């Protein structure tokens, strides 16, 4: 076990997905972790799950991590700052400017507070969804402000590194603009796309492939939480959505008469713009490196995926990514595997020789 940077104890307020995951990760490093939650049931579950212990009189936490919904984040942070004057306090809310502004308005001691945000999560919430490895390799933003010193904020850096996340420093303004583009607006678009499915014929839904499932995956997220998030970051989200609306208007105009002069060129330019945007997304290990994909047909039987992965490894090919899709009405799965481009031809031939069916 690696040595922990934190000394502890660490107090976690709110034991939903993020709070429980923080607790589980810290307990793996033998940090004394104190749990608190407004729900006695959730608190008991998180304790039984091994995420930490109940608070005791005389606790003196080194660090407090507030993991509560955005609409009460500033209130709870202010309460914790007052209750534990020797502790540094952070929160993990997905907006950073609004809580800081409210804390300033309350007159809270923000010399001991700095907001942070782990960009990690799952569609399901609650303590039972917590995972000790949830943050490994994921960005975790620290939203610095002038009222706290680097030395005081060091405990939060230690927390992030202990949990295996990648520390990213931003201002609260930069953070909120960034998550509007890469998280909050995608949630809105995913939701609206999924809503189109509610009145669709079953015959149409049976045609759905992995692309639609990928696009609508986050539409299953908690509506109550997202009402708060979008309300707290409304300005940046609205700006991106208005630009997106302009993009849609150009696309719709081009499709009104696809045979009109220049219409197909406009569609092609929009599609090429999407290609350019995707190419900017960091790939594996943070590199802008593209991989090639191939689809292998897998029988819906126990052990088939393990067999496929074993064969790929035996051929000396590194698997960069894997996605599974089930074929409606057929006892077969489609495994889309991503590898380096130079490995595709040999891997296709070798897997076919071993009896695997390559689609396409």
UniProtKB/TrEMBL annotation:
Keywords: Amino-acid biosynthesis, Aromatic amino acid biosynthesis, Oxidoreductase. InterPro entries: 6-PGluconate_DH-like_C_sf (IPR008927), ACT-like_dom_sf (IPR045865), NAD(P)-bd_dom_sf (IPR036291), PDH_C (IPR046825), PDH_N (IPR046826), Preph/Arog_dehydrog (IPR050812), Prephen_DH (IPR003099). The keyword Nucleus does not apply. GO terms for biological process: tyrosine biosynthetic process. GO terms for molecular function: NAD+ binding; prephenate dehydrogenase (NAD+) activity; prephenate dehydrogenase (NADP+) activity. Pathway: Amino-acid biosynthesis. It comes from the Bacteria. PROSITE patterns: PDH_ADH (PS51176). Residues 8-289 form the Prephenate/arogenate dehydrogenase domain. Pfam families: PDH_C, PDH_N. Its EC number is 1.3.1.12. Belongs to the prephenate/arogenate dehydrogenase family. This is Prephenate dehydrogenase. It comes from Cryobacterium ruanii.
